[in-house]
Amino acid sequence: MKRCVIAGIVSVAAAIGLISCGSSQVVRAPESTPDSLLTYDQAILRLDDWRMRIRKLEDDEQKAQGEIKLLEERLNTAVADLKRCQDENNRLIGATEAQINQFRERLGRLEGRIRELRGLSDNDFEPRRGEIYALAAEWNRLRNEKIAVMQEFFDRMIAARRDIQSLLERKPAWRGKYAVRPWRESKDCLWNIAGQQDVYGDPYHWPKIWQANTDLIRNPDIIQPGWELSIPPPGPLTPEEKRAERRYWRKKRQAMAAQEQQQTATSPSPESSERGEPK
């Protein structure tokens, strides 16, 4: 009887051992396997895996929250330091917060008007060219205030001055025509016309105007008030224009040499003057 009981206990123990041994060898299912296709043991393993992941994320979140709190404390300290620094600067400059805000608004309006003018096409810009001088005057008024040297405004003031200068130097839209004005009020000649900024800005380009108006201009030294001259687009002198300029200077030198010879021929000799003949 005792032997039968012992044999039964051994058999049960062996069965339990086999079951536990089998469960420890459960293979983890791939991540792509749907939950509905998992065995019981595989589902338990997947749940344990997710619980571990969740705990890790919770630990990471807690750590991140601690770091965020530390950074917020540092940020608050930096903001307080900056506020103290700004208050000290305001005290040195002698400006109130309201005055600084007013300066900030004025500079912002100035920058907006500059951007508007810079964005205009040539045709739209010309009627508003006079506004540039008002912008320059406003910039000078801002510059004369001590607030302009503050770090917030210093670089912006320099950029605004540079943009205003570029607007002042912007060339007018190309018109292609020029009405000659009386000499007494304008000193208009081909040389001076070519030198004007709204024409070529270079007086040496006068042959371009001459060769474009040979139907009017017979002598480049003579132009008449009221003539409407055609102005070719800017650019280097063409070979034809260079040849015309060389011909002009050659004839000019010949005419001057002939005039000198004529003056020499008509002037009295030194011997005649010594004899008392009229000079």
Written account of the structure:
- This protein has 279 residues and is mainly alpha-helical.
- The chain contains 11 helices and 2 strands; from the N terminus they run H-H-H-H-H-H-E-H-H-H-E-H-H.
- It has helices spanning 2-24, 40-93, 97-118, 122-125, 131-143, 151-168, 183-186, 190-195, 206-212, 239-266, 270-274; strands at 177-179, 228-230.
- Helix 3 (97-118) runs antiparallel to helix 5 (131-143) and helix 5 runs antiparallel to helix 6 (151-168).
- It starts with a helix and ends in a 5-residue tail after the last helix.
- The relative contact order is 0.04.
Quick gist of this model?
With 279 residues, the protein is mainly alpha-helical. Helices cover 66% and strands 2% of the residues.
- What is the N-to-C succession of helices and strands? HHHHHHEHHHEHH
**What top-tier CATH class of one domain fits best?**
Alpha Beta
Q: Kindly estimate the percentage of residues that lie in beta strands according to DSSP.
A: under 5%
Structural class per helix/strand content?
A: mainly alpha
Which spans have pLDDT < 50 for at least 5 consecutive residues?
1-23, 275-279
Question: What spatial order of strands do you see in the largest sheet?
Answer: 1-2
Provide the helix percentage: 55-70%
